[in-house]
Amino acid sequence: MTLLEQINRINSMMGLNESQLPVHIRRRLKLNEDEILQELKGWLMRFHEEGKEEITMSKAFTEATWWSMTPLEEDLYIDEVHQIVKQFLMDKYKDEILEFQQSLFGGQDDDGVYCFIKHSERYGGLNSRGFSECVKGWHTFLKKYGYWLPHLDWNGIHKKLNEVPSKEPLLLARPLEKHVYEYYFSILKR
After folding, report:
1. Which pairs from 182-185 meet CB under 8 Å and 24+ separation?
2. What is the pLDDT of residue 37?
3. What are the beta bridge partners of residue 114?
4. 14-48 pLDDT, tens per residue?
């Protein structure tokens, strides 16, 4: 058995890999691993429902699959292609996303009030555009706003908010910093 055959055998035992995808599908994929993981995490936070983890995972992978494919004008086999790509993404990222879901939503939700602040000026003020909204419960906050910035370490942010009570908002992101918005984002726990 040649080295290539051994590699393909191991890959087939571990699930589908990129080289096994048909060429017409491979050409359509945007396979930047960091971006795909960000999309998966974002959709997972957006669709999270307590006790329905499998449904949440399926919805997240479905949406991330649509995002990862470049559409063609006349696509007769879009559903078939979608299923192949979704299976590929699930084989490759399911364990990592399941671990992410457990670490983020696995524990008991708290009764804290978390305020999400979107502002155009660094420290807010009268000339600042944006909004702020407060929600009760960390899981509710993540479902409502976590997907805006899926690249952040939300467990670390939650820990930091609980360690040091502050009247000043904690800056989450600057304009265009790993997101498409031209705003600052902050969080405050009350």
Report:
1. 182/120, 183/118, 183/119, 183/120, 183/129, 183/130, 184/117, 184/118, 184/119, 184/120, 184/121, 184/122, 184/130, 185/116, 185/117, 185/118, 185/148, 185/149
2. 85
3. 135, 189
4. 555 666 677 767 767 766 778 888 888 888 888 88
Domain coverage including residue 172: 113-189
143 with 175, same domain? yes
Residue 4 is predicted with a pLDDT of 56
Q: How many domains does the chain have?
A: 2
- Distance of alpha carbon 132 from the chain centroid: 22
Dihedral-angle region of residue 184 (phi above 0 means left; psi in -120 to 50 means alpha; beta otherwise): beta
Angle between helices 78-105 and 138-145 (to 10 degrees): 150
- Which residues of the chain register pLDDT less than 50? none
Q: How far apart are the first and last CA of the chain?
A: 64
Which residue bears the tokens 């991330």?
Answer: 64
Gyration radius from the chain CA atoms: 20
114: helix, strand or coil: strand
